[in-house]
Amino acid sequence: MTDEPTAGEWLVPPPRTAAGWLLLRRPEPGDSSALYDAVVASVDHLRPWMSWAEGYTPQMAEAFVDRNAAKPGDPPVAEVSYLVWDRDDHLLGVCGLHARIGPGALEIGYWVDVRRTGRGVATLAAAALTELAFSISGVRAVEIHHDEANRASRAVPARLGYELVATVDDAPGAPAEVGAELQWRMTRSAWPFSDGARLLEAARTSSP
Ligand SMILES: CC(C)(COP(=O)(O)OP(=O)(O)OC[C@H]1O[C@@H](n2cnc3c(N)ncnc32)[C@H](O)[C@@H]1OP(=O)(O)O)[C@@H](O)C(=O)NCCC(=O)NCCS
Predict the structure, then answer these.
(1) Does residue 9 lie within any of the structural domains?
(2) Distance between CA atoms of residues 84 and 92, nearest Å
(3) Would 76 be classed as within a structural domain?
(4) Whose CA is nearest to atom 37 of ligand 1?
(5) Residue 106 is assigned to a structural domain of this protein
(6) Strand-pair partners of 96
(7) Which of 65, 83, 89, 160 has the fewest C-beta atoms lying within 10 Å of its C-beta?
(8) pTM
(9) Quick one: pLDDT at residue 178?
(10) Which residue numbers in the chain have pLDDT < 70?
């Protein structure tokens, strides 16, 4: 017997986490119009890397909110997304945790509204999500995967001190992908000493 989580529905994600000037919180009823607005404004920026962005509809935003909202009794899930907000309640982007890379490991995904990029949103949000992932019992490693051509995405794990552990062939899933997936990993034992943990602490100190 092992209590190590495997792929599947074992995640019980907390409702929110704060990271200085950023707040990550699970979607709530009423968030779908802000989400729809962010995707529609960002469609040219998202489309190269995320095929779902093309033809996004208000119904898709509503379904996303419903799927990722906290449910009574906190049933375990296989993946969860958080909306990323600033202190003025502007939606900045979305980030998520996925239990799809094997036992004891979670994968982080993210995108940022094109009107909010280049300010460290994805980097700080991924740091907060890494910390949150390690607050879940049994999580030994967190990974970030991206296509080799996605330079902006690559900068995120690199800046947090994730280790590049593999490059694997992966059929392109979006128009700009070249089909080589870079896999970066942070372990539970390395996290407290990482650039990501330091970044998080600095963000909380400068804007508690
Ligand atoms: C990838 C993405 C989430 C980054 O969001 P962000 O909030 O702008 O990221 P940050 O500001 O935290 O960091 C971005 C880093 O990438 C760098 N960067 C941005 N565009 C770049 C490019 N074309 N080439 C190289 N580096 C780039 C920035 O300079 C920054 O690094 P620096 O501060 O060291 O200079 C955002 O560009 C996005 O939403 N892209 C489309 C969706 C996507 O690709 N998601 C990831 C799929 S794996």
Answers:
(1) no
(2) 5
(3) yes
(4) 152
(5) yes
(6) 81, 109
(7) 89
(8) 0.94
(9) 97
(10) 1-7
